[in-house]
Amino acid sequence: MTTATYAVELIDVRKSFGKTEIIRGANLQVKPGERVAIIGPNGAGKSTLFNLISGRFGASSGEIRLHGERIDGLAPYEINRRGLSRSFQVSNLFTRLSVFENIRCAVLWSMKARYAFWRFLADLRDVNDRTEQVLEMIKLDKKRHVLAMNLTYAEQRALEIGITIAGGASVVLLDEPTAGMSKSETKRFVQLIREVTEGKTLLTVEHDMGVVFGLADKIAVLVYGEVIAFDTPDKVRANPRVQEAYLGSVLAEQQAQAAGAH
Questions:
Q1: Would you say the C-alpha torsion 161, 163, 165, 169 has a positive or negative sign?
Q2: Enclosing domain of residue 10
Q3: Which of 7, 97, 106, 262 is the most exposed place for a label (fewest CB within 10 A)?
Q4: Total tally of structural domains belonging to the chain
Q5: Average pLDDT over residues 212-217
């Protein structure tokens, strides 16, 4: 019997595009407050799984539950209102709005103030206070008036995370949050993610194994649309099946890159 013990629960979830089955009976149980990294080779179905959980795609079969309630079949905005928010691989910002205005748009949506067209935004004290709070959390309060298009890449990713958490969602999905960043930027960004998701449930798709092992409480390994392992980083690292299916190829690739640098 399914209970609300889990923040996110996948029960035999499948997704096919035509005759091609991408997700093949995925099962996953994420407890509230856990930080979970989803890893796997290219084509394993990681982004598809995120799209299923967030409602962009409908599952072909199976169940997806958020805090014990089924959300498969709901529209993305309905799932968002139930406390789940996600970011995307590609920054999705209002580039010609300021940093402050980008965050405020997200806050307005979450507070259902978007239809109050007869009120001046400056008068919405609760909205503006929450916007200021988020700006401080993502360390962009000093760039509040800068247009999003003029931020550095790392700052744009930070702004996107701010938009993702602005509504106070209890479950946050981050799709390759550190992609394209330098090592120093990645290190700072991992710390930022830790800070802004404190007390929340986090699911992230990430290819940088340093980020994965440094951030995640647990790792879910997705191979050919199935979760073949779900455990602590140390246990996943030592899992022979994971080594054979994924980590071995990753380590070999990293070693080859290191050899090529000499």
A1: negative
A2: 1-83+207-262
A3: 262
A4: 1
A5: 91
